[in-house]
Amino acid sequence: MKLVLKQIRKYIAAHWRIVSAIAVGSIAICALMLFRLGSTTGSLSPAEYQQQLFASSWHHLLNNPLNLPLTATQWLILTIVPHHGVTVTRAASPIFGVLAMIAFAYVLRRWYGVRSAIYGTVLFGLSSWLLHVSRYAAPDVLYLWAVPTLLALTIAWERHKVGFTHYLLITTLALLLYIPGLIWLVVAVLLLQPHLLAVSWRKLGSAAGRTGGVGLFLLLLVPLLVAMVRKPLLIQTWVGLPAHFGTPGDFVHGLLHSVSFFVYKGPTSAAVWLPRLPILDFFCMVMLLLGGIFYVRHFRAPRTRMLLAMYLIGALLFALGGPVGISILVPIVYLMVAAGFGYLLHEWLLVFPRNPLARSLGFGLLGIAVTLTCVYNLRTYFVAWPHNPATKAAFHKSPQN
């Protein structure tokens, strides 16, 4: 233990600027997530009200453990805090919003480098959609967390030695499988990167390690398996299918919306969005276009195939109109936005490799653009959305104490 503490102190002393920046950034993010969490709308939406009633009883969670990472956290908070106000009801969602940002930053750091990771995480973390979903009590926030977390697992799986970290990765993977529709993304990742299983099996090494890893994974899935045996209808929801299928026209419209929601007109649900406003702002649309160009030029890369497969699967699940919402696609789109940002930086530095004035000018202009984008998103969420008449009509439920 003393050796570990000594190594931590040594790392902090050597990287105190980075550690300080991360600490300040983390405090600012947590403060933003909690700022006016309950008073922004004053009341709950009907969906939040039903979620509160469901998460208030552990019997409900045992009978239907789908979305367990969120519902279990909500149950814990609602159990500890006796007064179930609006803030308490929503308190679990910001946790997963912050975890989504951490996983997103980790993926960007490994894929695109430090600069792109910083700018990309800021754009994602201060995006209107993340603010809406991360400060809302419904399960949509789990998809913002699950997609970058799954990608982070694929990276960390090969980088870390067997030990506590490896078992933590196994635990996280098991928790992801409680989210409806995520099984297909996990299968896609394993099909595109089959060596991950071989790497994991080899790293577990001894028979005891392998038995422990497989046993832990299966043990964590026991509540889900038992519930599906007792209520087979849960299987349909678990795989991401709706209770009642719509018409082929509805499915086609869903596929079109999986693109148009980002660049043309967004969702019409006032409870989670300012109706008809596209999810992406103009600057992010331009970065998305550049990100698309970047991935087209690297179409054969494994990363491109993985993102494309995940987007197609997510779009299909969303178009079916089942439990999977548009949130499953948002992290993938913002990864492409970050790729466009990194591509632009790369091209700028190629043109001006040694000119400090041009480099500073480029970074400064991009910094101004990112700042204006973040201010726009913050004003959209904290000012325009709460004062919209449709928003006021969508939140009229008092919390159940």
Question: Care to give the gist of this entry?
Answer:
Helix content is 74%, strand content 0%. The protein is mainly alpha-helical and 401 residues long. The chain is globular.
Structural topology:
Elements: H1 2-14, H2 16-34, H3 46-55, H4 58-63, H5 68-80, H6 86-90, H7 92-112, H8 114-125, H9 128-134, H10 141-159, H11 164-176, H12 182-192, H13 195-204, H14 207-230, H15 233-238, H16 248-263, H17 282-297, H18 302-319, H19 330-351, H20 356-384, H21 389-394
For this entry, give a set of tags:
single chain, 401 residues, mainly alpha, 74% helix, globular
Count the DSSP helices. 21
Rg, alpha carbons: 22 Å
Strand content: under 5%
Task: Name the average pLDDT.
Answer: 88
* Sequence stretches where pLDDT stays below 50 over 5 or more residues: none
The percentage helix is over 70%
Shape: globular
Distance between the termini: 44 Å
Tally the beta strands. 0
Described by strand count, sense and barrel closure, the largest sheet is: none
Report the structural category. Answer: mainly alpha
- Return the string of H and E elements: HHHHHHHHHHHHHHHHHHHHH
